[in-house]
Amino acid sequence: MSFSDGASKSSSKSSTKPTYSRFTQQELPACKPILTPALVMATFIVIGITFIPIGLSHLSASENVVELVDQYDEVCIPADSSDPDVAYSKRIGYIQDQTTDKTCVRTLIVPKKMKQPIFVYYQLDQFYQNHRRYVKSRNDEQYRDPSASDKTGNCEPEAQLSEGQPIVPCGLIAWSLFNDTYTLSRNDVALPINKKGIAWESDRTHKFGDNVYSKNFQNRSLVGGGKLIDNIPLNQQEDLLVWMRTAALPNFRKLYGRIETDLEVNEIIKVVIQNNYNTYSFNGKKKLVISTTTWIGGKNDFLGMVYIIVGGVCLLIALVFITVYLIKPRPLGDPSYLSWNKNPASVQ
Ligand SMILES: *[C@@H]1O[C@H](CO)[C@@H](O)[C@H](O)[C@H]1NC(C)=O
Fold it and tell me: Which region ranges are annotated with the description Disordered (predicted)?
């Protein structure tokens, strides 16, 4: 090399010059779109005219969902004091008393014909199933494997009885299982709720064992919620499986069961509720939801609205661009707009 001198003794082999490649020289093929006005306007228009119909179809599907919501936590408890503190302690006393009859009868009127399958949900508001210490209070190995019943790691404070026997299923989530029940009837004829197949398939087949049985469950002095049947394997007690798929948000619905007959408009549904679950200590709300579904699921206007708003904004932007383009067009790549051409004096 012409630059190497005798002192550095560098041979051409140890040269620091990189070998040529298209990658190091940044010569790889690349997409370099030129955003011409026509292309930009066309893109916005295409987005607009595809999103608005999608949004409208979501909204109309949501409109076709028939939904009955009944909040029963306030009406299903005797409220016999105007002093809030007294009322509060009376409610807690009522709900925690194992001996009182907590039956509560509600009547609902079907607003529109409801085609089967009709889904029955319970909705809890202000229930933080997503709290870190709650979510972690479980042991999946124990739920899956019958020989792991004493594996109660992570389950504190619901891991063992005071004498040391393990609780199966352990943990706070299982312990706080929802325990209100609903019995439906119309014209004094029972309206059966099918509770089979309400949990995830994978929960039934993999996550919970078909030979794991509950043991020592809700046997402590403070009962957190529903009980389990000891001689039915966990994976068939689907209410538990549904409950243990913890909700991400504090207001959530969980599937209770399915009604497999059509309900006609103006029919009167009598609901007998066993109002057991204690949401009163944290001012939570309880609602019974009876709803049909369509291809988008239950009632949900949000997605349709978002599609329409995004589509509308795109069309609006396209319109603005078109107007600007018509009023004040300028040729693409005009060098007179370059800063040094615009103001030559500022360039030395
Ligand atoms: C239902 O759960 C509550 C706690 O939320 C508990 O106090 C009550 O004893 C339970 N009732 C039944 C019948 O399991």
Answer: 1-20, 138-160
How high is the pLDDT of residue 347?
Answer: 53
The identity of residue 71, as a single letter, is Q
Backbone dihedral region for residue 180 (phi beyond 0: left; psi -120 to 50: alpha; all else: beta):
beta
> Is pLDDT of 112 > 90?
yes
- Atom 14 (ligand 1): residue with closest C-alpha? 226
Q: Is 276 in the pocket of ligand 1 (CB under 6 A)?
A: yes
Kind of pairing, strands 189-191 and 193-194? Answer: unpaired
Average pLDDT over residues 184-198: 94
Atom 2 of ligand 1, nearest CA residue: 225
Buried b / exposed e across 315-329, counting CB within 10 Å, b at 16+?
bebbeebeeeeeeee
Q: Is the CB of 98 under 6 A from ligand 1?
A: yes
pTM score, whole prediction: 0.81
| 218-222-227 Cα angle (round to 5) | 25
Q: What stretches of 110-239 adopt beta strand conformation (E)?
A: 118-125, 181-186, 189-191, 193-194
For residue 255, what are its two tokens? Answer: 């599937």
